[in-house]
Amino acid sequence: MKSFASDNYSGIHPTIMNAIIEANQGHVSSYGYDEYTRKAELLFKQHFGEQAEAFFVFLGTAANVLSLSSITKSYEAVICTDLAHINVDECGAPEKHGGFKLLTVPTCNGKLDLTLVKKHLENVGFEHHVQPRAISISQTTELGTIYTTDEIKEIADFAHANGMFLHMDGARLSNAAATLRLPFRSFTTDLGVDVVSFGGTKNGMMLGEAIVFLNPNLVSGFKYIRKQAMQLASKMRFISAQFIAYLTDNHCIKTAMHANLMASYLADSVKNIPSISITQSVDANAVFVTFPKELTPILQETSFFYLWNEELNEARWMTSWDTEPHDIDQFVKKIVLALNEIKL
């Protein structure tokens, strides 16, 4: 049975693998001075607008840290939710390598509440406090929810009105696009997002992320920052070739839409089971649930998943581009049998 732990667990989509193999022909220029990288960069312009400038890196953490460090100084801060990936799951890399401070606000649905952000603006101009310079939001959020276009526009306008930039952690941006049924630029560039960390490894890519500057005023000097951060790939064509396949003919949307549909199917399959409660809106490819603690080890033996909140025994079940209905049917059958076994 496939795991529901993370969409990172899934393999490489055959279309992406074939793109890597096809790029493995002959000699081409290194460090991004090649036809594959140029074509990939042009595709990002098609999806995000002519002003978009994409820089490829190896990792999602690097994409987040470098995009944010390029727009902040050492005495400045980035505001995000307390559940943001940059705050919880990047081992202090933003502070260590980015050199900026994170200022967090609590969230119950993964989204940023602007009324709570305002407290971090009370000491603007006071040299004893770090100065807020950017807001970072995740799309989709860490709880699997999705910002509407109105919500993003409101945050972008607020950020700009207060002298800040808006960064979007788009590790699952394709899943958001599939749900919103909108092109990427319509919920990023057109709404005032300044820079996006664009991910593909959770949706069938082998490796590689893109830092996409949507605000052209932020690009200057970034190629040097990327090199200093050891994120300039010598054989860049193998990252670029993946993005060509990923962005062509809406491949990334099709695979993300499948993952989203599988999450909806999983949620529909468990919502009427006694003792199972869905705790968050299922907007993309994540299902958050609570259930009796006795059930956890039994289910994890069959298909591993992570407990999001051990106190509540809340789990996160993730579906992927390669999740199939029969995987879910098997998992749900195991849930029912286990509940009967422990007589709940």
Structural account:
This protein is of the alpha/beta class and about 350 residues long. It folds into two domains: about 240 residues, Aspartate Aminotransferase, domain 2; about 90 residues, Alpha-Beta Complex (Aspartate Aminotransferase, domain 1). The chain is built from 13 helices and eleven strands. The chain has a seven-stranded mixed β-sheet with strand order 1-7-6-5-4-2-3, sandwiched between helices. Strand 4, helix 7 and strand 5 form a beta-alpha-beta unit. Helix 11 runs parallel beside helix 13. The longest helix has 20 residues. It is globular. The chain starts with 13 loop residues before the first helix and ends with a helix. The model has no long low-confidence stretch (mean pLDDT about 95).
Topology:
Layout: H1 14-23, H2 35-48, E1 53-57, H3 60-69, E2 76-81, H4 85-88, H5 93-98, E3 101-105, H6 114-117, E4 131-138, H7 149-161, E5 165-170, H8 173-180, E6 195-199, E7 209-213, H9 222-228, H10 237-247, H11 251-270, E8 277-278, E9 286-290, H12 295-302, E10 306-309, E11 314-318, H13 325-341
Parallel strand pairs: 2-3, 2-4, 4-5, 5-6
Antiparallel strand pairs: 1-7, 6-7, 8-9, 9-11, 10-11
